[in-house]
Amino acid sequence: MQKKYHIIVFGCQMNYADAERVAAVLEKMGYKKTLKLEEAGLVAVIMCSIRQSAVDRIHWLIEKFRKIRNLQPNSYRLQTILTGCILEKDKKVFIEGFDHVIDIKNISQLPKIMNKKSSLHKIDDRPNSATMDYLDIKPKSFSKFSSSVPIMTGCNNFCAYCVVPYTREREISRPASKIINEIKSLVKSGCKEIWLLGQNVNSYKDPKNKTTFAELLKKINKIPGDFWIRYTSSHPKDFKQDVIDAMADLPAKASAKAEGNHITPYLNLPVQSGDDKVLRSMKRWYTIKQYRKIISDLRKKIPNIAISTDIIVGFPGETKTQFNNTVKLFKDIKYDMAYINKYSPRSGTTAAKLKDSVSWPEKKRREKILTDTLRETAFKNNKKLIGKIVKVLIDNKKDDTYFGKTDTYKSIKISTFAKASVDKQKSKTKNKNLIGQFYNVKIIKANNWNLEGKII
Ligand code: 5AD
Ligand code: SF4
To answer: What is the number of the ligand closest to the CA of 197?
Structure first.
């Protein structure tokens, strides 16, 4: 049987960036990618540990692998690898269900590891250098037009609820020169959207020349070509005026044809809670007053910026009054999007020692209240865009409808061309794949969670 691999990714964009490096290593070993699990001789799973539900999915997968193996002839046995964000204690559990459990930072050692009998691999565990080495693997991009470039790994913040500092260890920034070279090569190959990734990009610092995140944005902005830069995640305690200034000075041009500035007017700024006391107990180290000031400074300098946030509802001890402070913050900030999470206790974190005091139904109730509030503000914000012409990166097509994202990271459905340009555009785009290209789109309708428009 031909050597085929199938890759399963759970979790955040960092895990997808990791998966692209795992894929690159496997392809170098002679494996070809298959989208069908049943066809694969090797399955690589990139796991997420942020919530217990993500960990539970791995148990479910192990059962699935067992069923597949039962149907396979004795001479042939599916190989399985687990990597990604894994807690030390889970590595010991999952080695029972996988052939190899390997730290992502050791992924370049995979060819050596595959020749060994099943084990939990602790090869080359030099903490810092090994972590950085794996980011130097040239990724096998899953998309031709949208890619992620990790600018740092790990996290030093130890927010009370979060496993990331335990699974990804301490924060290390990549040299700016390597980041810039990777971006240049992506742009050369036609990439249109590049996400700069890190657990806390605002604390980025080049290990040698101390380039800050704002300075990195400025350097990237000098790269010629027609592409967008987005970034995630930010931490309000480290989000300073220099980044606001860099974003304001280097905005991506509104027109599809325009080249030059690349930084898009979109920011995900996780607040986690709208209550100072809860923030303190989460160990977030900023106040709501400081958070509001960042948002108002951003809006003053970048009036069209779209803002999203991350929230945890039902953190241990969160009272109804404290939760209502989050609702108030939502009403005041008028977010464009929010990723609302129900608190999930994670072993090893400081919050795990606190009583998970908010019941599951109450967490669900709080989640619904915030979703309802968000729906209203997102819809109002979207309505303001009707009639405007925005630059859109088309990323999908179903039947005759195209889908894409605006510079402000809003989803948009494009059903038709504007009347005046129907013939011109139709002949221009006939038999042409619009996916992965920028177009100017006139917004004709606003919905709660997306926009509708016509290519002009
Ligand atoms: N429970 C629920 N949500 C969590 N997050 C991180 N840890 C937890 C947890 N234990 C959320 C935070 C973070 C996002 C990536 O996941 O909101 O910003
Ligand atoms: Fe987790 Fe906090 Fe680090 Fe983000 S900043 S990865 S929430 S510990």
So the answer is: 2
Distances (CA, A) of 88 to 91, 92, 157, 439: 5, 7, 19, 47
CATH of domain 4-125: 3.40.50.12160
> Which residue's C-alpha comes closest to atom 18 of ligand 1?
310
pTM for this structure? 0.93
Assign domain 141-383 one CATH number from 3.80.30.20, 3.30.160.270, 3.40.630.30, 3.40.50.150.
3.80.30.20
94-147, pLDDT tens digit by residue? 999 999 999 999 999 999 888 776 666 554 444 444 456 899 999 999 999 999
Residue 83 CB–ligand 1 contact under 6 Å: no
Contacts 24+ apart (CB under 8 A), 359-363: 362/314, 363/313, 363/314
Nearest CA to ligand 2 atom 1: 162
What is the whole-number distance in angstroms between the Cα of residue 168 and the centre of ligand 2?
Answer: 10
**Which residue out of 235, 237, 284 has the highest number of ligand 2 atoms within 8 Å of its CB and is therefore the one to mutate?**
235
